[in-house]
Design a protein that fits this description.
heterodimer, A: 332 residues, ABC transporter involved in vitamin B12 uptake, BtuC, 13 helices, 73% helix, B: 498 residues, Rossmann fold, 20 strands
Chain lengths: 332, 498
């Protein structure tokens, strides 16, 4: 299985390289620094969200409400900044959004841990609830006139490379994604909490018998997803320089697809940070670069679907074949 | 006399009015191998869970290592060195061997961070104690059942086990793996003085490994003592409370009738070669052979689940083609699969639904609606006819014991009145008393004119129920045997000879 998994990750990496080569040879713009920086900027939000989703999927659950949480956090943060502290620095916005996200995530956790409800049903419900509540009670207008801190953030760069026309900027938001990746990696691999998440996904009953506090782990998981979603939402709004309550919601499946492509199994117990990062890159490539070789946008969805089907189908079929060989017909 | 590790006196336990344990007295001595035997439902599992602190007793006294416990918790039990290895091993399939072994210890130490070096050291030490070599970085799901068991034992050792309780540890092991497991158990006993409580209903294994025998029946310990005082007949008597002596099945063919089933030159690529035999109404025909000899494939071919390349199947003198399960059912063939849990029953569904699933079409009214009163009539009839022991037929099938589950599978088929029943491993996992009743039921069905094809590798079962036995080897019928002209040893020898 370890070989298979590393192969799954290599498979995704090979696909990424292959796809890059095809696109790049047909349209050299792809290999430009400008395009690279743009791709990185595009993957920032998906990357943060994917880390949260990865943890949920490893634990054997699923969360589809995180997009509503993200936009909720963003909208509340921008509205509060505008209303009460228009001159506050950008971190205040991140703090508000992440705390709102944490709170909403804990609402998910409450239903999931206390009433032991199926995670898909809870988060499907809260997806609608959070989004509906946002539109109804907090606001449904797009805030375009954002506080100056956001505008300033959107224009900042950690690397500026002058080009023939204009310059290529690498946005500092990528550091947020990198931080989320590192934190998630450390959490999953070097803390008992992280191992508890894997254990829970492997066998809930065994995890309880071993002495893990499954309730507490679930509170952490859904709280963490909410927290990351708040940050992702704020990042999204800061990069777009607006807070649109209709944004982000609808991205769920893209993010989940990236995580699943990266080798996480929806049945729980499996998934790595490296695989997820690769999955995100592949989805971003398919979403943003196929246009460079003339694939119409509507077809990109078909391509992504195909990649998911093939990418998750092949390992599953291989596993079944291997299983059949070792058992044989006599054991049916 | 070895020192006492655990003493239970007068333990009582009831669940919702059902008395599971009625005054159990039990002593476990340090460093000895104890075996606990008893039929399903006799209270073995309840007793284990009381010892492990999972259930609270209603009355009685527990003394562990000389200390009296009024309220034994699982933590207390673990601290006193009691480790239970349940049938599912409580392992994490997605984690590595090393992590599975070390995880409990890390949790017990209250660690927050993982030191992978520590995890490996713990696992290596534990496996070294066992003297076994298992790749530490492989995932548990890649391991054989035997290795999973060793991993579970290694895990228990790391928690300073003084008594390891194993619940049905050999049910999924091959003969050689059972030998190896017994080797490990004896080694741990000799080198580290660990006591074992081995729960099983496989009498030959129990007789081989145990030093102290403990027999339970109806929530009580009915007999216990030194291994030397017991043999298989005494164990069966103590477990069931009666002497079981089955009579073999006599059959006189009625030559006027054509055979119920005639198979001629049946071939299926690589699996079955030139199979020919006949089965008369009222006959019980045994089919035996090693795993992979083609015995299961033959059943599948007759039941339309394995395509045949050539050959004739004649039922009541009429040639028929069987290409699907539907064809087989139309010609009155029923099949009770080997693995009733996954193939024969809808485990989560109620007993009554399982009973009527095959005949549901016949229980409809003119509006095509199912008539509840006819369903309950049928259910009541079959629960009674096959004495299925349940407080309520609306409970899920999985609440039944193995023997009763097998009765539900049987009843499901009998309700549709097949002419020919193929029974694959009819009493696998069924305890002694139930087994005898199932055999009697099979004989009664045959006497009433049904043809039975019994596939089994349980030699005594074949000798007691069948009037003829076909021995299969490498996809062929190699010999036909008359039970009266052979005995257990001879047939066992024939089964394994190449």
């Amino acid at each position: 299985m370890k070989r298979l998994l590393s192969r799954n990750e290599t498979l995704v990496a090979i696909t990424i390289i292959g796809l890059s080569l095809i696109i790049g040879f047909n349209n050299p713009v792809f290999f430009s620094v400008g395009n690279l920086f743009t791709l990185l900027r595009t993957s920032v939000v998906t990357g943060i969200l994917a880390m949260g989703v990865l943890i949920v999927i490893i634990s054997g659950g699923i969360d589809v409400s995180f997009t509503a949480i993200a936009v909720f956090g963003l909208y509340v943060a921008v509205k509060m900044m505008k209303g009460f502290m228009p001159d506050a620095p950008i971190w205040v916005g991140f703090a508000i959004a992440s705390l709102v996200g944490l709170g909403l995530g804990l609402i998910n956790a409450f239903f999931i841990a206390h009433y032991r409800l199926p995670t898909l049903i809870v988060t499907l419900g809260t997806l609608s609830m959070f989004h509906g509540f946002l539109l109804f009670a907090i606001g449904n207008e797009i805030i375009r006139d954002v506080p100056p801190a956001l505008t300033q953030f959107a224009r900042s760069a950690i690397v500026r490379i002058p080009l023939e026309r204009g310059q290529a900027n690498l946005h500092p938001a990528i550091l947020i994604t990198v931080a989320a990746i590192i934190v998630t990696w450390l959490l999953l691999n070097f803390t008992m909490l992280g191992r508890g998440i894997y254990a829970l996904g492997g066998s809930r009953e065994a995890a309880e018998r071993a002495g893990f506090n499954v309730n507490r782990i679930q509170y952490f998981i859904y709280g963490f997803v909410g927290f990351l979603s708040g940050i992702a939402g704020m990042t999204f709004g800061a990069l777009a320089r607006q807070a649109n309550p209709q944004d982000i919601v609808g991205m769920e499946l893209n993010v989940i697809a990236a995580v699943v492509l990266g080798g996480a199994q929806l049945t729980g117990g499996y998934g790595t940070v490296l695989g997820t990062v690769l999955g995100v890159i592949l989805v971003i490539l398919a979403n943003n670069s196929l246009i460079l070789i003339g694939v119409p946008t509507v077809w990109q969805r078909v391509v992504i679907g195909l990649i998911i089907l093939v990418g998750t189908g092949i390992p599953a079929i291989q596993a079944r074949r291997a299983g059949k060989r070792s058992f044989g017909l006599a054991d049916i | 006399m070895a020192e006492e590790l655990l003493r239970l006196t007068g333990i009582h336990k009831s669940f919702a009015g059902v008395r599971a344990l009625r005054g159990v007295d039990l002593t476990i001595e340090q460093g000895r191998i104890h075996c606990l035997v008893g039929e399903n439902g006799c209270g073995k599992s309840t007793l284990i869970k009381i010892i492990a602190g999972v259930y609270k007793r209603d009355a009685g006294e527990i003394i562990l290592n000389g200390k009296r416990y009024d309220d034994l918790t699982p933590i207390d039990a673990i601290r006193e060195g009691i480790q239970v290895i349940y049938q599912d091993f409580s392992l994490f399939p997605n984690l590595t061997v090393a992590e599975n072994i070390a995880l409990n210890e890390e949790l017990a130490e209250g660690r927050r961070l993982v030191s992978w070096r520590h995890v490996h050291r713990v696992a290596r030490d534990a496996l070294a104690q066992l003297g076994e070599n298992i790749p530490l970085d492989a995932r548990v799901e890649e391991m054989s059942v035997a290795n999973k068991q060793l991993i579970a034992i290694a895990k228990a050792l790391r928690q300073n086990a003084r008594l390891i309780i194993m619940d049905e540890p050999t049910s999924a092991l091959t003969g050689r793996e059972v030998r190896a497991l017994f080797g490990v158990i004896r080694k741990l006993q000799e080198q580290q003085g660990i006591a074992f409580l081995f729960v099983s209903h496989k009498l030959n294994e129990v007789l081989e490994i145990s030093e102290t025998m403990i027999v339970m029946r109806n929530g009580k310990i009915v007999s216990s003592g030194e291994r030397a005082e017991y043999d298989s007949a005494r164990l069966i008597f103590e477990m069931t409370g009666r002497r079981i002596a089955e009579k073999s099945y006599d059959f006189t063919p009625d030559d006027g009738q054509p055979p119920l089933l005639q198979v001629e030159g049946l071939n299926a690529a690589g699996l079955l070669h030139e199979i020919s035999f006949e089965l008369r109404a009222g006959e019980i025909l045994g089919v035996t052979g090693l795993l992979g000899s083609g015995r299961t494939e033959l059943a599948l071919a007759l039941y339309g689940m394995l395509p045949m390349d050539s050959g004739r199947i004649v039922i009541d003198g009429q040639e028929v083609t069987i290409r699907s399960v539907q064809d087989a059912i139309r010609h009155g063939i029923g099949y009770v699969p080997e693995d009733r849990l996954t193939e024969g029953l809808f485990l989560e569904q109620s007993i009554s639904r399982n009973l009527v699933v095959r005949i549901i079409d016949r229980l409809r009214n003119g509006w095509q609606m199912i008539q509840p009163e006819r369903v309950s009539q049928q259910v009541a009839h079959w629960v009674d006819a096959l004495s299925i022991k349940t407080p309520d037929p609306e409970l899920p099938v999985k609440t039944l014991s193995g023997g009763n589950q097998q009765r539900v599978v049987l009843a499901k088929w009998l309700a549709s009145k097949p002419r020919l029943m193929i029974l694959n491993g009819p009493t696998v996992g069924v305890d002694v008393g139930s087994k005898e009743e199932l055999h009697e039921m099979m004989k009664q069905l045959a006497r009433e004119g049904m043809g039975l094809l019994v596939i089994s590798d349980d030699i005594p079962e074949l000798l007691q129920t069948c009037n003829r036995i076909l021995l299969m080897r490498q996809g062929r019928i190699s010999e036909e045997i008359r039970p009266k002209e052979t005995n257990e040893n001879e047939l066992s020898a024939k089964l394994v000879e190449e």
